[in-house]
Request: fold
Amino acid sequence: MSDRENNTQADNALLLRVAMGDQTAFAQFYDRVSGPLYSMALRMLGNEHEAQDALQEGMEHLWRKAPSFDSTRAAAFTWAVMLFRSRLVDRVRRGATQSRVIEQVIAQTDPEQHDDATAVQALARHEDCHIVRRVMATLKDEQQTLLRHAFFTGWTQQEIADNTGKPLGTVKTVIRRALLELRDRLTQEGYEP
Amino acid sequence: MQTTTLDQSQREQAADYVLNQLDDAELAAIEQGIKTDAMLRLAVQELSDAAAAIAYTSRQVLPPALAGLKVQTAEITEKVASKPDSGTDNLE
Reply:
């Protein structure tokens, strides 16, 4: 079994223990996922204070929802990221505007140039991080940009079209195709969520 | 592991669902489909994996708790125990 498969199993096992009310497992799960979750919050919300608040609130939500986790239907990392992202999207759509500023600033730049080196080393899944970034870079520039808009801004496709000046039909087509291609290429690379 | 038996419209709906781009009626329809269609359920699962991976493409920064502050997970569990939850989410 590869290290990446071990990571998947470790995360799933921890989250199943969290679902049983195991606080030690919750602390360990926090250590494994809080880096990517906080980084995502910072990207979407645009300031550290709100990102910290979102992480705290999001982890409370994960603790509450853990009993609904089904490892046959989702990997723990995916479950945590997507559940957390939904909360962030709610925050953004309630009125936060910072993400728009941040998105404009760093959308076209290489994220590795901005990483906190300690944060990358601390990632339980740093190899996965490198795989995902390498695979993402194989998508066309327009696909990368619009897919990141769709994931990180919380915008609707109409808002993305309005803010990028692209036709709505183009936005929809590019984002859907980009996600499908990303899935295919991650699978080919043996990515384990 | 890739899903090949769904038609293009279903694959597009699955992608839109994963990225929270459906209106209420579309959302209700696909969630009903997920309950009954194993291929659609698998497609959503795989696309969710891919979408979640996008989190790695943002600048990676340590949260304060991992940058030196004490992780307060015990506080979270105590706080949650005293406050009931509300609302629903995808992937539950």
In short: The radius of gyration of chain A is 17 Å.
